[in-house]
Amino acid sequence: MAGQRVQRVAAPLRSQVLEVLRQDILAAEFKPGERLVEARLCARYEVSRTVIREVLRQLESEGLVTTVPNRGPVVTELTAFDAKALFEVRGALEGLAGALFAERATAGQREQLGKVVRRFARTYRKADLAERLAMKDEFYDVLIAGAVNPVIESTLRGIHARVQMLRGLSLQADGRAPETVRELEAIHDAAAVRADADAARAACELHVRNAGAAALRELAARQREDQEPDAG
């Protein structure tokens, strides 16, 4: 398995390794349930065990890594039940965030939300998964900031960390990216342009329902592939 060599630049080494390993997990370079062996990770990213241990602890706090007794750290395996539960809560909270954004966001935040959506619409065909996820993260950063509710902010950020792998699945699903663009444009129109709280809530909830359905389909397909015996 070829790894990405971590560049020694101004950002702290731990932060660089954290970002690269996180993206490798989201891109399925490491499969759900796969052991994350310290020695192999050290060789892959050319860093020390201390750095790897710190990174694994951070990823465990984000829900991407799980420590299993007698096995050590593994890539978290989310069941369909887990995924459905996360998307249910995410939909309710993002719907509320969208409604509050419509009521409370500043003119600058409304403009910024539009800029992010337009950039996503222009570039999603050429963007890789990491770039798409980064743009979605920026979208939610603006939406949550404009909602001006610290409880929603802290709760949603924890949920988003846990559903990162599922967001990767949904964005990779066939035909999902253009649907995502249309849904984000609808959220922007309702929340930032028309300041219609009810419409913003509905648009956010629809986006999460559709993303959840796509992620669950991809999750089921990958699980079927893993269960099929090798041809031979």
From TrEMBL:
One Pfam family named in its UniProt record: GntR
Keywords of this entry: DNA-binding, Transcription, Transcription regulation
Keyword Transcription regulation among record annotations: yes
PROSITE patterns the record matches: HTH_GNTR (PS50949)
Source taxonomy: Bacteria, Bacillati, Actinomycetota, Actinomycetes, Pseudonocardiales
InterPro entries tied to this protein: GntR_C (IPR011711), TF_FadR/GntR_C (IPR008920), Tscrpt_reg_HTH_GntR (IPR000524), WH-like_DNA-bd_sf (IPR036388), WH_DNA-bd_sf (IPR036390)
Top-level taxon in the UniProt lineage: Bacteria
Domain called HTH gntR-type: residue spans: 11-78
Molecular-function annotations in GO: DNA binding; DNA-binding transcription factor activity
CDD domains per record: WHTH_GntR
Name under which the protein is recorded: GntR family transcriptional regulator
